[in-house]
C-alpha cells in the first residue's frame, strides 16, 4: 500500500476510547471499539449506494492525513503521517468519527481485532462480494489469514468443494481444518496451475479467489473459473506500480471478474454485526491466530509472517 513517510503503520486493531473531540456522538470514553481503515461517512455517493463501501474519506492513495487534511502525530517538531487513517501500531492513535465502530463490551479485543481487516475481508469476499452459492466449487489462491477466512466464508455459504492453492504446503493442514476439501501446490506439476485446476473441476470452478496480490496469480485465478459462468474475485492487494496483461477472450466468453475491498462490508454498519456473530459462535477466530506477542516484539512478528510460519500474530500492549 502507498504511504507517506515518516508514518505510523498498522490498520487492524481493537481498543478503548480514551477521549473524544467536540461534536463526536457515536462513541464516548471507555467504549470498546474497532478502528476502520475504510471509513463510513454516510454522505458520499459510495456510502449512499447500497452496493458501495469505498468511502470518499478512505486513504487508499497514501495521503497520510485524516479526513480534515491534518496529521495528529508529531515527533521532534515534525509531522508524522497516518496510515490508512488509523495508524494502529501505536499505544494511542487519533481517528475520525467515521473511522471507528463501537462494539459490545464483552468482546475480547485480542480476537475481534481480526475483524478490523483480515477476517472480514476474506469472509466477505465469499459471502458478500462473490456471493458463493450452495453446492458450488470454489478455489482459493493463497492460504494466509485472509485466504483462510475466504475458505470459512465459502464453507458458511454451503460450497460443496473448496480447493486451496499455495506453494507453502505447511498451510494445507490449517486450510483443511477451516473447511478446504483439498489442497494443491502449483510447484507439483509442470502444467500451468489453471490447467490442472480446470481438469480437476471438469472445466473450471464456479468461484475463484485470488488472495495473494500477485499479477500472475490474478490471471491464474481468472483462468481457473468456468469460462462461461465462473466468477473470480480479486482480494489480494496488487503491486501499485505494475500493470496487468491478460487475454480479453477470457472475459468475452462470460466470466465475471470482481474486485473486493474489505469484503464488501459497510464498515461502521457491519463490523459491530460481525462482532455480534463472533460472540454468538457463528465463526471461530482462534484458528487464524497462531502467535500472540507483546508490542515490543513487533519485528519478531514480521519475521514470523515473512517466513511463512504464522497466520496472524496479535500484538498486545
From TrEMBL:
Pfam families xref list: ADH_N (PF08240), ADH_zinc_N (PF00107)
Record key words, sorted: Metal-binding, Oxidoreductase, Zinc
Domain of life: Eukaryota
Membrane spanning residue stretches: none
Signal peptide from the UniProt entry: none
Domain Alcohol dehydrogenase-like C-terminal: 145-279
Every Alcohol dehydrogenase-like N-terminal domain range: 3-103
Cofactor: Zn(2+)
Membership in a protein family: Belongs to the zinc-containing alcohol dehydrogenase family.
Protein name: All-trans-retinol dehydrogenase [NAD(+)] ADH7 isoform X2
Species per Swiss-Prot/TrEMBL record: Erinaceus europaeus (Western European hedgehog)
The gene coding this protein: LOC103125139
Amino acid at each position: 500500500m502507498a504511504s507517506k513517510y515518516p508514518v505510523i503503520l498498522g490498520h487492524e486493531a481493537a481498543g478503548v476510547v480514551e477521549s473524544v473531540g467536540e461534536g463526536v456522538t457515536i462513541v464516548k470514553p471507555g467504549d470498546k471499539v474497532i478502528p476502520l481503515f475504510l471509513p463510513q461517512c454516510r454522505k458520499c455517493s459510495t456510502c449512499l449506494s447500497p452496493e458501495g463501501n469505498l468511502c470518499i474519506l478512505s486513504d487508499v492513495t497514501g495521503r497520510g492525513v485524516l479526513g480534515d487534511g491534518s496529521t495528529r502525530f508529531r515527533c521532534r517538531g515534525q509531522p508524522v503521517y497516518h496510515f490508512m487513517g488509523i495508524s494502529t501500531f501505536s499505544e494511542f492513535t487519533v481517528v475520525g468519527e467515521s473511522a471507528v465502530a463501537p462494539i459490545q463490551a464483552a468482546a475480547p479485543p485480542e480476537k475481534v481485532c481480526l475483524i478490523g481487516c483480515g477476517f472480514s475481508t476474506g469472509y466477505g469476499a465469499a459471502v458478500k462480494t462473490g456471493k458463493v452459492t450452495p453446492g458450488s466449487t470454489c478455489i482459493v489462491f493463497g492460504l494466509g489469514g485472509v485466504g483462510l477466512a475466504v475458505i470459512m466464508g465459502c464453507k458458511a455459504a454451503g460450497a460443496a468443494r473448496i480447493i486451496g492453492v499455495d506453494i507453502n504446503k505447511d498451510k494445507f493442514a490449517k486450510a483443511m481444518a477451516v473447511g478446504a476439501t483439498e489442497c494443491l501446490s502449483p510447484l507439483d506439476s509442470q502444467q500451468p496451475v489453471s490447467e490442472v485446476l480446470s481438469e480437476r473441476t471438469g472445466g473450471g470452478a464456479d468461484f475463484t479467489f485470488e488472495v495473494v496480490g500477485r499479477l500472475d496469480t490474478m490471471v491464474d485465478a481468472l483462468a481457473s473459473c468456468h469460462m462461461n459462468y465462473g466468477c473470480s474475485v480479486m482480494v489480494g492487494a496488487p503491486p501499485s506500480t505494475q500493470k496487468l496483461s491478460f487475454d480479453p477472450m477470457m472475459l468475452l466468453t462470460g466470466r465475471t471478474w470482481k474486485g473486493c475491498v474489505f469484503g464488501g462490508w459497510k464498515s461502521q454498519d457491519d463490523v459491530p454485526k460481525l462482532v455480534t456473530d463472533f460472540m454468538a459462535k457463528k465463526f471461530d477466530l482462534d484458528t487464524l491466530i497462531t502467535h500472540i506477542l507483546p508490542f515490543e516484539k513487533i519485528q519478531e512478528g514480521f519475521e514470523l509472517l515473512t517466513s511463512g510460519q504464522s497466520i496472524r500474530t496479535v500484538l498486545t500492549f
